[in-house]
Amino acid sequence: MRKQLLLTASSVVLAFGLTACGNSDTTDKSGETGGSAPGEKTKISYWTGDRHDAEFVKEKVAEFNETNTDGIEVELVVKGDDFDTALDLSFQTSDAPDIIRVKENTIGTFYKKEYLAPIDEYLSEELKAKFPEMVDLNTFDGKRYSLPNYGTTMRLIYNKDLFAKAGIQNPPTTLQELVDTAKKLTEAGKADGAYGFAQNFKNPPSALGRSSRVIAEMSGFGGFGYDFKTARFDFSGFKPIIEAFKQIKDNGSMLPGVESLDIDPLRAQFAEGKIGMYLSFSSEPGVYSKQFPAKIDWAAAPAPTIDGNVKGASGFLGGQWLALSSKSEHKDAAWKFMEFMYSDQMLTAYQENGYGISMVPSISAAAKTPEVNGIEGFLPNKYDGVWPVYPTVAPEGMKSDDAFFKYMLNGGDLDAIITDLNKRYNAALDDAMKNDGLKAEPDAGFDPAQLGGKFAK
């Protein structure tokens, strides 16, 4: 199955976001007296899992509450890694938000769960032309459910000070180099409490989604275990990646306590110089500029591949931002707020304040690139590209990320684990194709090596 994006390389500049996933839950009720319309206010809620832009968005919510003339009052709710679970519960208890922050790895699931309402009736021809339409990223079955703001790239983030102390000149380009470099960094920094490598394994899908995924994609394998050539799941490409991660942990080169480490505590440790390397999204420049000011010299480099050969592309993420809840009783009011958030003034300020580079061609052409330390390492290169959208299935039993992390902790037969994953995921795929109308068609000509570089300047 090869999904085509209705987006041309000449019409959009690949965006790199400054998205950070937090772990706290806060609510903003600013602007309670805003608005000039008489009578009772129309109250709506916006739920997001983003932390990096929370203060900026709070300011914009307050501005909207104070200036809109329709008597609308927006409540901003910022959640952490429990966002998906909390959203599921809200729909079960009829307490769902009116507007939902959606991402490339959640919008398809939320669509299938019928959490989202199409926004086509609100889109003028001007808006349709302005915002890129991306099949299976913001458009499903011919209807749009979100509009883009910014996108992200993925990189290896490394501590240049610790590299220099260990006498290492260049970041690793292969898995073996990753293992060896982590060990050398640990030997150089252990006296000061620094270790060579870390990931936020409190949440295995988050940890491996920002690490094994990009290594697999750069090596020519689907980052979620799906083979587009055969239209089947095959996790065998992950074997050397997971083995390398296990080796780093087993030889003591991984930061102790990663089992309970969340992404923000990891970033705090890196900012203090306690971590040599980790893999993540282009959120990090904003994080180390605003959230956790870095006390070290750091940089970003392309993720390593299995053997040093790039046979695919580092998937760029994006194409969506805000979505309208299917359970909202105030859809018109919610759209007015979304329209405000998608205004030129708002999106331009979003980029120029360093929260992300816009995916909207008219904005990216006019807005200034933020001056944020470290951002140069995340700029689009010849290895960044857009992968097709893989089919999302719900296998029985343990999911792949949890199974791989369990192996990293306890060992076992990795070949047998992969065989089991393939069997269960393909059974779920067959079931979804038979009973849910899911389409998955082989693309014998699919070549991941052809994906890269189409968005590089």
How does this model look, in words?
By secondary structure, this protein is α+β, with helices and mostly antiparallel strands. 35% of the residues lie in helices and 14% in strands. It contains 16 helices and 19 strands. Mean pLDDT is 89; it is low at 1-37.
| Main sheet: strands, sense, barrel | 7 strands, mixed
Structural class: alpha+beta
| Helix share, percent | 25-40%
**Rg, please?**
22 Å
Cα(first) to Cα(last) distance is 28 Å
Shape: globular
- Count of DSSP helices? 16
SS elements, strand count: 19
Q: Any key phrases for this structure?
A:
7-stranded mixed sheet, 16 helices, globular, 4-stranded mixed sheet, 19 strands, 457 residues
